[in-house]
Write a structure and sequence with these properties.
447 residues; alpha+beta; outer membrane lipoprotein receptor (LolB), chain A; Glutaredoxin; globular
C-alpha cells in the first residue's frame, strides 16, 4: 500500500505585522496592533509598529524587489545562498511573484480566481484554484514570515504573543535615515530597519534563527534586502493574467520522479530527511487533536505509523511505547498514527493491546502520502525545529537498536540529518509546490 504525509509547520509567527494587509476592502488600520504580550513593547516600539501598519494597510497596490541571503556555518565553513524575488500586489487578491533560486526560476500569477505556477527548469506549468489566503501561500513557498505577513489577510495574528523584548532606535542604512526595531523571541533575534518619514517601508531585515536548531548564535541567519519599492504606479496591463509561456507544457504535477516510480521506491521517503515536515493536524482517538504547531520549537515528535492488519506493527508499537516511558514529554512526544482505518476498528484494537501511546488517526492517508511512506510500520522522527530527522521503515532487532540511539540524540536536540545530503533548493521548492492548499498554513522559522 502506498502512503503519504503532510507538512505541518505552523510557527509562532513573525514580527512583521508591519507588512500585512487586509484581503477584503481597505480599512483604517487599528489604533493599536499589540493586544497580546503588550508588556514586551515599550511606547516607542508600539508607536513605530502602529505607524507601519497604518501605512501598509492604506496601500491599494505596491511592488518591490527583495534579495534573501541565507548563511550557514558548518564545522568552521561558512556558506551563503541567495534567492531573489519580484512582487506585484493589488488588493484584494491579485498577485504576481517571480522567485529566482540558484538552480530554478518560479513564476506565480494569481488572478483572483485561479493561480498558475511556472517552473523554468522543467518548462512546465500548472493551474489550480487560488487559495483564500495568498499570504499563507507565499510564506509557504518562500519560507519567509515577512512575505507571509505582507500579503496575508491578518495584520497581527499570533506574532505579538511571542515577543519577549523589543528595542527601537534610529540608524543610518546606506545613507538613508531609518528606524531600527529589534525583537527578541524565545529562539530568534530579529532586527528590521524601516525608512523614516511618511513612507515607512522596510529596507533590511536580519534574523538569527540558530537557537531554533539548537546551534550557537551566528550559525544560521537570514538577511533580506528590499529595493525598488513602488506604491504609486498601477500594475501594467495583463500583470495578473494567466498565460502559458511559449514552449511550456501544462501538467497536473511537477514531481516527475514520483510519476515514474508508481511501483514504489523506499528512497522517496528517505529523500525527505533534512527537509521541513509538512504541516499537519491529526485527530486523536480520545477526541482531541494534535498538530506540528503544538510542538514546534518545544519538543521533538515521533510518529509511529501502523495498521491493525499489520503483524510487525504490533511489535513496533509495543516497543515504541516501552521506549516512550524513558523520555520526558517535555523533550519528545510519541504518537501511534493509524493509517486509513475507521475509529470503530482502531479503538477496540488499541484497547485490547493495552497500547500506552496516544493514538492519532490519519484516516485518509494524506499525512503518510505527503511523507511518501510506502510501508508500515514506519517511524518518522521530527526535530524541535520541524525538520524530518529520520525515517525508519519496518521492524527488527537491529533496527530497534538504531532507533534507541536516534531517540536519545533526538531528545538531546542533536541533528540526526546532518550527514544526509541536503536536497537542492529547487527540489525543496518542487516538494512544497506539490502540497495542496491546506498545507499553506505556516512557515518554518523560530519566531
Amino acid at each position: 500500500m502506498r502512503t503519504k504525509i503532510v507538512l505541518n509547520v505552523f510557527l509562532p509567527t513573525l514580527l512583521i505585522m508591519t507588512l500585512c494587509c487586509h484581503a477584503e476592502e481597505v480599512s483604517p488600520a487599528p489604533t493599536s496592533l499589540i493586544p497580546g504580550n503588550s508588556g514586551a513593547f515599550d511606547d516607542n516600539s508600539k508607536a513605530m509598529l502602529n505607524k507601519l501598519t497604518a501605512y501598509v494597510a492604506q496601500q491599494n497596490t505596491f511592488s518591490f524587489d527583495a534579495s534573501v541571503y541565507t548563511k550557514r556555518l558548518y564545522s568552521g565553513k561558512e556558506t551563503e545562498t541567495c534567492t531573489r524575488y519580484h512582487f506585484v500586489f493589488q488588493r484584494p487578491n491579485l498577485l504576481s511573484m517571480v522567485m529566482e533560486l540558484e538552480d530554478e526560476r518560479l513564476t506565480v500569477t494569481a488572478n483572483g480566481t485561479d493561480i498558475m505556477f511556472c517552473l523554468d527548469s522543467l518548462k512546465r506549468c500548472k493551474t489550480r484554484k487560488q487559495p483564500e489566503d495568498l499570504g499563507a501561500l507565499v510564506g509557504w513557498l518562500t519560507q519567509q514570515p515577512v512575505f507571509r505577513r505582507l500579503f496575508s489577510h491578518s495584520l497581527s495574528e499570533g506574532w505579538t504573543d511571542n515577543v519577549i523584548e523589543s528595542q527601537c532606535s534610529e540608524e543610518i542604512v546606506d545613507d538613508i535615515p531609518c528606524d531600527r526595531l529589534e525583537l527578541d523571541f524565545e529562539r530568534t533575534t530579529l532586527v528590521v530597519w524601516f525608512r523614516k518619514g511618511e513612507n515607512p517601508i522596510p529596507l533590511r531585515q536580519i534574523a538569527d534563527t540558530s537557537e531554533t536548531f539548537n546551534a550557537p548564535k551566528g550559525t544560521f541567519s537570514t538577511r533580506i534586502e528590499w529595493e525598488n519599492w513602488n506604491t504609486e504606479e498601477e500594475p501594467a496591463p495583463n500583470t495578473f493574467a494567466l498565460h502559458i509561456p511559449d514552449d511550456f507544457k501544462e501538467v497536473d504535477r511537477f514531481d516527475r520522479t514520483r510519476e515514474s516510480n508508481k511501483g514504489g521506491n523506499k528512497g522517496n521517503a528517505q529523500s525527505l530527511v533534512g527537509e521541513h515536515s509538512p504541516p499537519f493536524v491529526l485527530e486523536l482517538l480520545d477526541g482531541t487533536v494534535t498538530s506540528l504547531a503544538d510542538h514546534l520549537g518545544k519538543r521533538a515528535i515521533v510518529l509511529e505509523f501502523w495498521a491493525t492488519w499489520c503483524r510487525p506493527c504490533k511489535s513496533a508499537l509495543l516497543s515504541m511505547a516501552k521506549k516512550a516511558k524513558c523520555f520526558s514529554k517535555d523533550d519528545v512526544v510519541f504518537y501511534a498514527v493509524n493509517l486509513m482505518e475507521p475509529r470503530e476498528k482502531v479503538a477496540p484494537f488499541a484497547k485490547k493491546m493495552k497500547l500506552d501511546l496516544p493514538v492519532a488517526l490519519d484516516t485518509t492517508g494524506k499525512l503518510a502520502d505527503q511523507l511518501r511512506l510506502e510501508a508500515v510500520p514506519s517511524a518518522v522522527f521530527i526535530g524541535k525545529d520541524g525538520s524530518i530527522q529520520a525515517i525508519h521503515v519496518g521492524y527488527s532487532r537491529g533496527l530497534t537498536k538504531k532507533i534507541e540511539g536516534d531517540l536519545r540524540d533526538l531528545a538531546k536536540g542533536k541533528n540526526l540529518a546532518q550527514k544526509v545530503k541536503q536536497p537542492s533548493a529547487s527540489k525543496q521548492l518542487r516538494y512544497r509546490l506539490e502540497l495542496d492548499s491546506e498545507s499553506y498554513c505556516a512557515v518554518f522559522v523560530g519566531y
